[in-house]
């Protein structure tokens, strides 16, 4: 009987170690750990249809959302839902700089013009670290 319990005890310990290692490597925080990146956004002077960004002809109020399958969506300066954004990182500006943790692999970027009633999507696309990408009406540089 003692011989049967010993392998089961070892199996139990190995199983616990396996689950712990799996948890560590699949943890969302591990996907971003230590990858502070500067993201620079330069927005075109007008929308694709040559319309101004704001009703009074002003520059856009820029916010940024980053999406990745391992970590979900993070919007800057706050939130995790493009439609619910009410604050901009850079008001009335064609240029904005963000400092944020990013995944090592490519991720989805959404650049938003935050407006009072309905936000405008400046562009959405995939980009990665050490790349410059065209995202709709914006050029995005990820350092």
Description:
With 143 residues, the chain is an alpha+beta fold. The relative contact order is 0.20. The chain contains two helices and eight strands; from the N terminus they run ααββββββββ. The protein is elongated, with a radius of gyration of 22 Å. It is 21% helix and 36% strand.
Given as residue ranges, the uncertain stretches (5+ residues, pLDDT < 50) are 20-31
**Helical segment count:** 2
Q: Walk across the major sheet and give the strand order.
A: 4-1-8-7
Assembly category: single chain
Give the mean pLDDT.
83
Report the strand count.
8
End-to-end separation in angstroms reads 62 Å
Shape summary: elongated
Helix content: 10-25%
Largest sheet data: 4 strands, antiparallel
Helix/strand-derived class? alpha+beta
Radius of gyration: 22 Å
Strand content: 35-45%
- What is the N-to-C order of secondary-structure elements (H for helix, E for strand)? HHEEEEEEEE
Provide the fold topology.
Layout: H1 2-26, H2 28-32, E1 36-43, E2 62-68, E3 72-76, E4 95-101, E5 107-113, E6 120-127, E7 131-135, E8 138-142
Antiparallel strand pairs: 1-4, 1-8, 2-3, 2-5, 5-6, 7-8
Short description:
This protein is α+β, with helices and mostly antiparallel strands.
Q: Which characteristics define this entry?
A:
143 residues; alpha+beta; four-stranded antiparallel β-sheet; 2 helices; 21% helix
